[in-house]
Amino acid sequence: MSPSRRRRGYADVFEEDVRISSFARISRNISGYKFPGRDSSSADAIAAAVGEALEREMPSAKEGRADTACRSLFSAPPPKGTTVFTMREEPVVVAANGTDHVAVCGIADTPQKAYRAAEKVEEALGKHLSFAWRPDIGFLTASPSDVGTGLKVGTVLHLEGLSLIGEMEPCIRGLDAMRMRAESLDLAGIRQTGHIFRIVNAVTLGEDEQTLVARSARAADALVEQETNARIRLVEELPRVFSDSVCRALAILKSARLLSAAELLDLLSPVRMAASMGFLSGMTADEADRMFMSLPIFAPDEPDADKRDAVDGKRADEINRRFARVVPNNRFIDLMP
């Protein structure tokens, strides 16, 4: 049995089903220019400088969209006016003229790998760009919370089990002692939508990058262990709570006439957990995961009511058809009290 897999009774729990992705974002600003939010007149020059530096160091870099990165991180797209570069040889996205002049975001399955990927690109850019830095503070950033290393490193986790058993808030409070924080999605009035949390460092000043990366990894590991234990507890000690959350979500997915992307994400959360634990027939864990990860949860513009209803109605029809044959299997039925 894989070390990432735990089995006890009916519960099959995979750590990789809790971890969605890890990320490391390094923020930098170019000396001699005002922050993007204060002066946009230099945006073209900054984007050109970043593009030229990437072309010299990483020829495969190209201007494109950050959709894949945003979905992997469950984060909003960069602000309007941002130029995004992607590259073939590194799992990295570079954004120019976002909150800061340059943001280098590495994406991987661990914080360590994500940071190494981002650091490599940041160092390459540093050969051609003069980043704003002071010996008494470190790197200067538009947000005071990023000053110092300019590094935000963390992991995106699906914490449905902890949320269902009511232990999410104590876990969030426990992160404070580690100088970490949990950022949730709060979309369309749904608090902690989909029970997706970004576990990220709360401070960047006064500590070196390796310390921040190591602490981020420890915090994610601790929460993953707590979540796997919570899922086992749900099955063994609270089967009615577990089965109610799954059956309620399936009933709505089969019959809803309107479904927003945010509502769908929230409903898919217990379904994704149940599928990953082997409790559903008609949908594999991979299918549930792909559906969960591909939702366009951040719309660039809010449509008017008529168009929104048409989009939500079409989405509901498609979901009704897809879930028509998705049912709890015999293992699930055996759990019923």
Q: Can you give a write-up of this model?
A:
It is a single chain. By secondary structure, this protein is α+β, with helices and mostly antiparallel strands. It folds into two domains: 15-226, Glutamine synthetase/guanido kinase, catalytic domain (Creatine Kinase, Chain A, domain 2, 2-Layer Sandwich); 238-335, no CATH class. The chain has eleven helices and 14 strands. It has helices spanning 43-57, 67-73, 111-126, 160-164, 168-176, 209-237, 239-255, 261-276, 285-293, 305-323, 330-335; strands spanning 5-8, 11-14, 19-28, 62-64, 83-86, 92-96, 102-108, 133-134, 138-139, 151-158, 180-184, 196-201, 280-281, 327-328. The strands form four sheets. The protein has an eight-stranded antiparallel β-sheet with strand order 4-5-6-7-3-10-12-11, with helices on both faces. The chain has a two-stranded antiparallel sheet with strand order 1-2. Strand 8 (133-134) and strand 9 (138-139) form a beta hairpin. The longest helix has 29 residues, at 209-237. The radius of gyration is 22 Å and the shape is globular. Mean pLDDT is 89; it is low at 1-9.
